[in-house]
Amino acid sequence: MATIGVAIPIEEPFGSELQKYRADFGDPMASSIPTHVTLLPPTEVPDEDLPRIDEHLLELAARFPSFRIRLRGTATFRPISPVVFVTLAEGISSCEVLQSQVRSGPLAVDLRFPYHPHVTVAHDLDKESLDRAYDTLADYDCAFDVSAFSRYEHGADGVWRPQRAFPLKG
């Protein structure tokens, strides 16, 4: 079995910048999780299904137009979940449609929570660290064009690594 996820990687230099902030806030997962917007949360699949899953993702990416994401400001899932994130100010509807298409066919899975595109910058930390993340990035603002998404695999060492990129239609 493989544990996979599908996500939009955050373009450089913003991805590294937000990952550094996450580490500075004390999040021990900062170096294990590339900065991203989730399209498919961690999902266990049989290894032999990976070629079929990749074909599914290639087909849908070839039909899906590229789009723009703008990240601006912070929000939180507290008290439901101890998470602080950078919000999407642009690209929400494209992410919502894309994730629903990703989660079809061989990847038809139910979600634990309603889908809400975001970029996590602090998770499972004490209140003070979560507050600091929320305040520090309150004025964060960047934008980039999304031209692809990736399938990631969770390694035995706990690190998420991109396995394959799926270019969007353009």
Automatic annotation (TrEMBL):
What does UniProt give as the signal peptide span?
Answer: none
GO molecular function terms attached to this record: ligase activity
Question: Looking at the keywords, is Ligase present?
Answer: yes
Which Pfam family is one of this chain's hits? 2_5_RNA_ligase2
Q: Which InterPro entries does this chain map to?
A: 2H_phosphoesterase_YjcG-like, Cyclic_Pdiesterase
The protein's name is 2'-5' RNA ligase family protein
Q: Keywords assigned by UniProt?
A: Ligase
**SUPFAM superfamilies given for it?**
LigT-like
The answer to whether the entry has keyword Metal-binding is no
